[in-house]
From TrEMBL, chain A:
SUPFAM superfamilies xrefs: PRTase-like (SSF53271)
Pfam families according to UniProt: UPRTase
Protein name: Phosphoribosyltransferase domain-containing protein
Region annotation Disordered: where it falls in the sequence: 1-29
CDD domains xrefs: PRTases_typeI
Domain Phosphoribosyltransferase: 46-247
InterPro entries registered for this protein in UniProt: PRTase-like, PRTase_dom
The organism's taxonomic lineage, starting at the top: Eukaryota, Fungi, Dikarya, Ascomycota, Pezizomycotina
TrEMBL record, chain B:
Enzyme superclass (EC): transferase
EC number from the UniProt entry: 2.7.1.48
A Pfam family: PRK
Keywords attached to this entry: ATP-binding, Kinase, Nucleotide-binding, Transferase
Protein's name in the database: Uridine kinase
Reaction(s) this enzyme catalyzes, per UniProt: uridine + ATP = UMP + ADP + H(+); cytidine + ATP = CMP + ADP + H(+)
Family from the record: Belongs to the uridine kinase family.
PANTHER family the UniProt entry points to: URIDINE KINASE (PTHR10285)
CDD domains referenced in this protein's UniProt entry, alphabetically: PRTases_typeI (cd06223), UMPK (cd02023)
Source species of the chain: Zasmidium cellare
Length: 249, 467
């Protein structure tokens, strides 16, 4: 989207949040995610604690330590949700309780993480907390100053990536320019489109729409779809520059 | 673009099958330490009450026996009384010197299983100190003091009344030694006190207590027969109480067997990941390193679920770094702390700290007695202000009969935590045990990963801790 023309904002809905047993007057009201009707867009349950975590990292007054800790908690919820989309096989095991079995499942297929540098690297810790020895590839995409289009500078990915499910990591999905290019890179290495899961904390309605138009089979897992983009292509209300707040600010 | 309608799954209780509010009738549970056995030991000053109490405790060889000295209940003195006391002219050996009202109140607390704050009396200052000693959950209390059998209200609460007897000369010499050595008095003052107060009071107030005593023990600790008789009798009473407690637990279980699950119970949604992790954890051949890794991961899910199912939030609007933008969000309302039920609860601590790194954590050690199958409270250490915390997560990875959970909740209530503030977090729970817990404490919230068959052994902590 060219700069200078902000898209019309979608007003995010407000909702009273809390468990069912609690009377309505005891449930505080908060703004929850907009819910574009898009297949393969998966928005985390808007629980009060998720909203509280997002409130923390959106707050301009939150320092770096708290920003890192709380964004990591959200990333972990995203990873747990994304892993649920991987295929499993039925698998019944004996339990430590004599004579009892558990009808469980076994994970099938190998995975790897790919982070879009540098902000995507901020989500690697959460991925490692759920999958200890996971391989993590990197892709560096920067905006070209002259054309103002994203350009691939560097990639280093596992050799056998085409046989793996890929968790693509980038915390903010604004226009989606870099992420779309990253998916192109993965596809050029032979990764099937439907084996890619794109994880982000906050997305814009334009971003998720662009993804649905270009790669309808890529699953987008996000914590929140915001109201839109401003004239500088920042997500609003957003949280500012994720990479800066996590690494250097 | 149209304004979309909101169709997100917002329920925190996704796996709950019965949405209607359950109607389990509230049941009553009293912990095994309620109706505490109290033994009163009276007798003349220096007749060997303290030694006898110690001898009985030694013979009992039980945990949870407490000696309560009536010296703790001396009335605080006015300045004139205090001056008289320092001149050895205040009568400490008359019933008027004892604050029987406070004593009766504290004994009632102990008898009903509540926490009792016992005053500390300083003989050097003749005043109560600001500190108190806390007595909680004893099974036997030995109340010793010259007037232990004096007050009617106290007598009503005693299960066994003992009067010790000793020769008068022996009493005087023992008292002299003790007061000079331990209470910083001089010999002349002590003798003055003996003849002006102690001796006349003995005949007037102390000796008549013989008439209400169940047994009179001459020769103090040398009297081995009397000591073993007393100890046998206490053992019998405790065995009976333990049996009654077991019967009570079973009865609660029967009441609760077929009740629908309360809507205060949140079961984790069984996603593929969760089932996969469970499958891994169940495998008895899994290396312990992997067990710990996957269990910690699961513990985080449990704690996160407790955060959405049980905690309180308030509205909080923030400015974002994007100019002119605000966000109407939420923030936690009040402090959240945790109490782990040892030793199993410590397996959930790593997960807890990944969510609240600086969480304050109280500890309870509850062990099931392998002989009687009864849970026993060995140790309690809670934050001073736990009663003021907005929510308290009570953590134990497994519950089967619910005996330990009932006891743990009871302990929190006795320390002033309101029932609706307690969130019990567990990995595996038996349906019957869960219903039993909810029928006794319907206001608490429970977060559980899986509901399993009743009476599973506590294998989770064994696997996690490796022994």
């Amino acid at each position: 989207m060219p700069e200078g023309r902000p898209s019309p904002l979608i007003r995010a809905p407000s909702q009273q949040l809390g468990p069912d047993y609690r009377p309505t007057e005891e449930k505080p009201t908060a703004t929850v995610s907009t819910a574009p009707k898009i297949n393969n867009l998966h928005i985390l349950n808007q629980t009060p604690q998720l909203i509280a975590l997002l409130t923390m990292i959106r707050d301009i007054n939150t320092g770096r330590a708290d920003f890192i800790f709380h964004s990591n908690r959200i990333s972990r919820l995203l990873v747990e949700e994304a892993l649920n989309h991987l295929p499993v096989l039925p698998h019944t095991v004996n339990t430590p309780v004599a004579g009892r079995t558990y009808a469980g499942v076994k994970f099938e297929g190998k995975i790897c993480g790919v982070s879009i540098m540098r902000a995507g690297e901020a989500m690697e810790q959460a991925l490692r907390e759920c999958c200890r020895s996971v391989r993590i590839g990197k892709i560096l995409i920067q905006r070209d100053e002259e054309t103002s289009k994203p350009r691939l500078f560097y990639d280093k990915l596992p050799e056998d990536i085409k046989d793996r499910w890929v968790l693509l990591l980038d915390p903010m999905l604004a226009t989606g320019g870099s992420a779309l290019m990253a998916v192109d890179v993965l596809r050029s290495k032979g990764v099937p489109e439907d084996h890619i899961l794109f994880l982000n904390l906050i997305a814009s309605p334009e971003g998720v729409q662009n993804f649905a138009d270009k790669f309808p089979k890529v699953r987008v897992v996000t914590a929140f779809v915001d109201e839109g983009l401003n004239d500088k292509n920042y997500i609003v209300p957003g949280l500012g520059d994720f990479g800066d707040r996590f690494f250097t600010l | 673009m149209n304004i979309p309608s909101l169709e997100l799954p917002l329920s925190s209780f996704a796996a709950l099958e019965t949405p209607e509010r359950s109607v389990t009738p509230k049941a009553h549970y009293s912990p095994p330490w309620a109706n505490t056995s109290i033994i009163g030991i009276a007798g003349s000053s220096g007749s060997g009450k303290t030694s006898l109490s110690l001898a009985i405790i030694k013979e009992l060889s039980l945990p949870w026996v407490v000696i309560l000295s009536m010296d703790s209940f001396y009335k605080p003195l006015t300045s004139e009384q205090s001056a008289a006391a320092f001149r050895n002219e205040y009568d400490f050996d008359a019933p008027e010197a004892i604050d029987f009202d406070t004593l009766v109140e504290r004994l009632r607390d102990i008898k009903t299983g509540k926490k009792a704050e016992i005053p500390i009396y300083s003989f050097e200052k003749h005043a109560r100190l600001d500190k108190t000693n806390t007595i909680y959950s004893p099974h036997v209390v030995v109340l010793e003091g010259i007037f232990a059998l004096h007050d009617e209200r106290v007598l009503d609460m005693l299960d066994l009344k003992i009067f010790t007897e000793a020769d008068g000369d022996l009493c005087l010499s023992r008292r002299l030694l003790r007061d000079v050595r331990e209470r910083g008095r001089d010999i002349e003052g002590c003798i003055k006190q003996w003849f002006s107060f102690v001796k006349p009071n003995f005949h007037k107030y102390v000796e008549p207590q013989r008439n209400v005593a169940d047994i009179i023990v001459p020769r103090g600790i040398e009297n081995k027969v009397a000591i073993s008789m007393v100890s046998d009798r206490i053992h019998k009473t405790l065995d009976h109480k333990s049996k009654m407690h077991q019967i009570e637990l079973r009865r609660l279980g029967q009441v609760a067997e077929d009740a629908p699950l309360s809507d205060h119970v949140a079961v984790l949604q069984h996603t593929n990941q969760l089932r996969g992790i469970n499958t891994i954890l169940m495998d008895p051949t899994l290396p312990r390193e992997d067990f710990i890794f996957y269990f910690d991961r699961l513990a985080v899910m449990l704690v996160e679920q407790a955060f959405s199912a049980g905690l309180c939030y308030k509205q909080h609007t923030v400015n974002t770094p994007v100019p002119g933008c605000t966000y109407d969000g939420l923030e936690l309302d009040g402090e959240v702390s945790a109490v782990v039920v040892l030793r199993g609860g410590s397996c959930l601590e790593t997960g807890l700290k990944r969510v609240i790194p600086d969480c304050r954590i109280g500890r309870l050690l509850i062990q099931t007695n392998f002989r009687t199958g009864e849970p026993e409270l060995h140790y309690t250490k809670l934050a001073e202000d736990v009663s003021k915390h907005k929510r308290v997560l009570l953590m134990d990875p497994q519950m089967s009969s619910g005996g330990a959970a009932l006891m743990a909740v009871r302990v929190l209530l006795d320390h002033g935590v309101e029932e609706h503030r307690i969130i019990f977090v567990t990995y595996l729970a038996g349906k019957q045990g869960l219903n039993r817990l909810m029928s006794v404490f319907p206001e608490i919230k429970v977060v559980v990963c899986r509901i399993v068959g009743d009476m599973e052994s506590r294998w989770v902590e064994q696997r996690y801790l490796g022994c």
